[in-house]
Design a protein that fits this description.
alpha+beta, 4-stranded antiparallel β-sheet
C-alpha cells in the first residue's frame, strides 16, 4: 500500500512505491488533447530508404503535409527540395536530374541543391530572374535511411542525431522496416511502451506475464523496464530465435527496456542470464499528412549474431515472419484507436497506467499544437483516406 502525497508542479506521487511521480489526471479540461499535438519539426526524421533514392533519380517524400523532392545527383549526394517549381508549382519530383541539379519537367527551370534557380532556358537577356527559388532541407544519410530536418535549418547542426553502434557492426545483422500506419504518432509510442497489451500477441508469443520493474521520466524521455515471464502456450518459432533461445527453444524470462527519447523510440531485450541484448530496435514515427493522423514507421531491428556461423541466416525468414505478425496485430490496435478518435471527435480514453500518463505528458509538452483547421472539427473533417486509397506498404526488408 502506498501513500498519496500532495500534488506538486502538476504531478501526483500516488502509485507504486519507488515509481516516479505521474502527471495529474490528463482528462482535466485544461489539458490539451494529445492527438491534436503535432510532432516537433526541429529534429532529424527519416523520409526514405537510401536505396529508394537512386543515382540521378528523384523520389517524392513527405513530412506532415510538406511535400519534399529528394534526388541523388551524379556525385552521389542526396538533396531535398520543396516539391514544387517556383514557376507553376508543378512537383519537382517529376523532374530530371542533370549532374547535381534538378530540372523541372514542365518548363525546364533548373535548381541547384540549395534550392536556388540555376537556369531558365528561355529567359531573354536583360530580363530579371526571380529573386529566389524553392526551400531546401538539410539532409543526412545514415543507417540506410535518408534523414531531413524539416524545421528551422539553423538548428539542424546542433540537433541530436541517432547513435546506433550495433548498426553495421560485424556482430549484428539489421532488419529494416518501412510501413505506413494510419494513426497519430503518439499511439505508436504508447503501444510499445505499454507492454501490458501482450494478450493481443497470445497467438505468436503464447501467454506472457509482463512485470513492470520500474521506470524513469525526464523532460524529453520516458524509459521503462519489464520482465517478460513465459506462462505457457504456443510460441512462434521466430520469437524464440530472435530472443536467442537457440535450437532448443527453451522459454526463459527476458528483461525488456523501452525508451521514448523524443522523438524516437528504442527497445532492448536481454535474455535471462545474459549480459548483452539479443536484439535492439530503433524506431521513428514520421507524420505524413498535415492532420498527422497517418505516420510512416521506420524501424531498424539489430539482431546479435549467435556464436555458430550461419545460424542467423537460416533463422532470418522465421524471425521476419514473427515480426510481421506482431506488427500486424499492433497496427490493427492503433488504427482502431485512431478510428475511435475520428468518430468521437476527441480522446475519450480512460487511461489508468501511470507510465502512459507520463509519456503522454512528455509527448504533449515537446510537441507543437496543430491548428483547428488541420485536425478538423468533430474529428470527421480532414480525416485520412480509406486504406485502399493509400500506397501499398513495401513491408520489411533486410
Amino acid at each position: 500500500m502506498t501513500e498519496a502525497l500532495p500534488r506538486t508542479d502538476g504531478y501526483s506521487a500516488d502509485g507504486p512505491a519507488g515509481f516516479p511521480r505521474r502527471p495529474v489526471d490528463e482528462r482535466a479540461e485544461a489539458v490539451a488533447d494529445l492527438r491534436r499535438i503535432g510532432i516537433d519539426p526541429d529534429y532529424w526524421y527519416p523520409v526514405a530508404r537510401s536505396r529508394a533514392v537512386r543515382r540521378e533519380r528523384t523520389f517524392a517524400a513527405v513530412f506532415a503535409g510538406q511535400r519534399i523532392a529528394l534526388y541523388r545527383g551524379r556525385s552521389g549526394s542526396v538533396y531535398a527540395l520543396e516539391d514544387r517549381c517556383a514557376h507553376r508549382q508543378v512537383p519537382l519530383s517529376l523532374g530530371v536530374v542533370e549532374g547535381d541539379a534538378l530540372r523541372c519537367c514542365y518548363h525546364a527551370w533548373s535548381y541547384r541543391g540549395n534550392g536556388r534557380i540555376s537556369q531558365i532556358p528561355y529567359l531573354p537577356k536583360g530580363c530579371e530572374r526571380p529573386p529566389r527559388g524553392v526551400r531546401s532541407y538539410p539532409v543526412r544519410e545514415a543507417f540506410g535511411l535518408v534523414f531531413v530536418f524539416p524545421g528551422d535549418p539553423e538548428k539542424a547542426e546542433a540537433a541530436p542525431f541517432p547513435v546506433l553502434p550495433e548498426f553495421g557492426a560485424a556482430t549484428h545483422r539489421t532488419m529494416t522496416f518501412s510501413r505506413t500506419v494510419r494513426c497519430h504518432y503518439s499511439f505508436m509510442h504508447e503501444n510499445l511502451l505499454d507492454m501490458n497489451h501482450q494478450f493481443l500477441h497470445r497467438s505468436v508469443l503464447g501467454r506472457i506475464q509482463p512485470e513492470l520493474l520500474g521506470y524513469e521520466t525526464g523532460p524529453q524521455f520516458v524509459e521503462a523496464r519489464y520482465l517478460f515471464v513465459p506462462a505457457g502456450g504456443k510460441k512462434d518459432r521466430g520469437a524464440g530465435l530472435l530472443s536467442a533461445e537457440g535450437v532448443g527453444g527453451q522459454q526463459t524470462p527476458d528483461e525488456i527496456t523501452i525508451r521514448t527519447q523524443y522523438p524516437y523510440q528504442t527497445l532492448q531485450a536481454v535474455p535471462d542470464g545474459a549480459e548483452l541484448p539479443s536484439f535492439s530496435l530503433w524506431a521513428a514515427y514520421v507524420p505524413e499528412d498535415a492532420e498527422q493522423r497517418i505516420n510512416h514507421a521506420y524501424g531498424l531491428l539489430m539482431i546479435a549474431k549467435p556464436p555458430v556461423p550461419g545460424v542467423l541466416h537460416l533463422a532470418w525468414p522465421l524471425i521476419r515472419r514473427f515480426t510481421e505478425r506482431v506488427f500486424a496485430q499492433d497496427r490493427m490496435a492503433v488504427v482502431a484507436e485512431q478510428r475511435a478518435w475520428d468518430e468521437q471527435g476527441e480522446d475519450q480514453n480512460h487511461e489508468v497506467f501511470p507510465l502512459i500518463l507520463d509519456v503522454r505528458h512528455m509527448l504533449r509538452t515537446n510537441g507543437v499544437p496543430l491548428d483547428a483547421e488541420s485536425v478538423g472539427e468533430g474529428g470527421r473533417q480532414g480525416a485520412p483516406r480509406d486504406a485502399d486509397d493509400h500506397e501499398k506498404d513495401p513491408g520489411p526488408t533486410n
